[in-house]
Structure formats: C-alpha cells, structure tokens
Amino acid sequence: MNRAMFAAATGMAAQQSNLETIADNLANAELPGFKGSTETFAALTDGQNGLGTVATGKHLVFEQGELAKAGGPFDVALDGPGFFALERPDGKFVYTRNGQFHRAPDGAVRNADGYALVGVRIPQAALSVNVEPDGKTYVDTATAKHTFVGRIRPAEFVSPESLRVAGSNVFEATSASGPPSYVDAGRDGAPKLAFGMLERSNVSVVEAMMEILAAQRAYEANAKGVQAADEMLRVANNIERS
Amino acid sequence: MNAIHWMASAMLAAKVKLEVAADNLANASSDGFHKHVARTSAGPDGLATSTALSSERGATRYTGRTMDLALLGGGTFSVAPGRNAKLAQPTRTGAFMCDREGYVVDQQGRTLIGKDGNLVRLPHAMPIEPDGTWRDGGRIVARLALPAGTTVRSGFLEGSNVNAIGEMIDVIDAQRAFETAQKTLSALDEARSKAANEVGRFK
Question: Which of A62, A209, B156, B161 is 20 to 30 A from A36 via CA?
C-alpha cells in the first residue's frame, strides 16, 4: 500500500508542476514572440516495480508563432528560426524573439526593458526607417534617401532548447546551448525579417485551458489513489478488532 | 492452505493490484509510457499476482517541437546512456533535443543511436523524413533503424497508453476486494473463536 501511496503522490507532484508550466504559458499568451513550454514526465522504476512518475522539467517549444501586422515605430518579426541579439546595459548579451522596439534618443534601437538591438543605430535626422527581409536597415532623412545604417543579423544556437530564461521573454546562452552564431538573414534556410509585423506567442489559449482541465483531473485521479491506499491501510488495521 | 491463508493471499493480491493501478495513474502523462497489467490467478499457494507490460500503443499527438519523434508502427528508438553505444536501451519515448555538439539526446540525457550503431549527430535540430533519415540538402546525415512498415514523424509524440478511467476502476476494485477479503477473514476468525471458546462450555 505504501508503494501505491507514494506512486500516487509522485503523480500529484508531477501534475502540480505541470499546472505551473501551463499557467506560465497562459500568463504570457499575449506577449509577442513568447515561446511556450511543455512539462515532460518519465516513469520512475526500481527495475522491476513502477514507483510512479517524475517531472523531468520544462521544455521550450520554439514553434513559429503567427506573424501579425503591428503599428509600433520599430516592430519587426523573425520568420524562421533564430533570435534578435540584445545588449543589456551591463554589457551582457541576451536573445529574444520579441521584436517590439523603439528608437531611443541616443540612436540605439531598444526594447521595452531598454536593451539595445545589436547591429543597428538610427541617426537623429532619420524621418523613416525600413528593414529589408535580409536585415539590412535603411533610413530616409530630409537630405538623403535610402541610407544604410546597419544590418540585423539573427543569432542561432545549435541547441536552443538549452537556453536559459533570463527575464521577461529573453534568453541567455548556456554552456549546453553553445555560443550564438550570427547568420545572414534572407539566405536559404536562414530566417527572414518582416518589418512592421510582430510574431504572436505560440501559446494557444484554448489548448492551454484544455491542458489545465486535463492536469486538474489527473491530479484528482492520483489523489484518489492516495485515498484508496489510505483506506486499505485503515481496513488492514481493523483486521483484529472487527 | 486453509481459508485464512486464502483470504490473506487475496488481500495481498488486492494490494499489488492497487500498486500497479497507482503507478499507471501517476504515469498517465508520461510520454511513451507503457502501463503494467496485474493478472491474478488461483494457485496452490492461494492467489498469485503477476504483472506484465502492456504493448498497446498510446495516442500520438502534435507538439510542434522539431526533435519530438513519434514511431508510427512497431519498433523502438535505441538510446545509449553516457554516450556508450554498447549499453543501448530500447524506448518509445521520442522527446529528443540536440545538444550543443549536435548529438540527439533524450530527457534523461541518453544519446540516440542510428542504424549504423553509432550515435546520431546532426548539424542542428532538423525534421526527420518519414523513412527515418535526416537529410541536409539531399545528403543523408543520419538514419534510424526502423522495422519494415514503420515510419517516423517529427513534431509528434506518442503519449502514455494509460487509460485513466480503467485505472480508477482498478483502484476501486482493488480497494473493495481488499475489504471483502478482510471481512471474510474476520468472519472466519470469529467462527474459530466461537469453536475455541464457546463450544463445549457448560453454564
């Protein structure tokens, strides 16, 4: 009975971390470029007997989100794999799929947290900006049209699943992910940039709601398992008395 | 074997049945998990319970992760713990990822083995063709050993084959079987108590 009780308890613990992961996905479902995670489980065994389950961790799903028209001053989306490379104020590089930027007074292109997009600077005099699908960025000023101001080069990783979440929708490289390699956008197999668009999060609210219901019921089923084991222990304790 | 021993073996059988059902329930969300089935039979030493692995396949579902692989048909993936291809283990759990050296590893860190018996290594995460090959611009980079008639899909996973309803029924069944055996055991005990203490007593 104890084995049954512990096996059922591992199931409850696993479903709890599953619920946390789904709740995190739901909370960020409206964040541009957000990538959802899934929880995975593995069977626990001593070689002969099943001892329940264990949550083996959150795994990022880098499935492409839908591209949607956006009205921001410097909204850009990645169509394909890779990340925007950002420089934090402390000089560290982080990576994101959220292409919601603005022109800062110092000429840098920054995201909402103030991290600067690597590769481009927009001069003060620029009246309009355009990013080509290959990442080359041009501005028009009152005196000159189509002036090249830099190129956005997406960062790719051999093992993006191993990136570490380093804050709101940004990742940092780890020894397991490997260092970033900057690719020329627009080439065969490389991502393309879509200016004036934003990538939606790849979390489907409807699916996440369904997953919550399923996780909740699975939790309950395991709780029933604990209950049944407890009840059987009670009965066993009463053998002598009744 | 007397009746009391029979009832004790029945209680043990119910206990094993509950343990199996609880383990199966706990793994209702473990991808590629195959449930155990408890079978009880009457033998010379009372009820004996044996467990066997179910070969039924779980439902395949879309995940969208390139390195999630689902086998459509029989067969298993061969994975090596500690990058040692000699210690190959079979599994149907297809949740893999590329590590930074390009080796394809599962959630427990075991490396996928290809048809040639070597560890599978890819330039980066890329979808597999249904025939079990990874191609980079037409060139075959790696190949999986698949039995005839089996294909493999990227972006899908085979779920657990546990049916929660069936397992809940087994939980209740085991619980009630345990109670029945206990009640019978108590009745037997009472009858013997009467025989020992009341029969032949003069008042």
Answer: B161
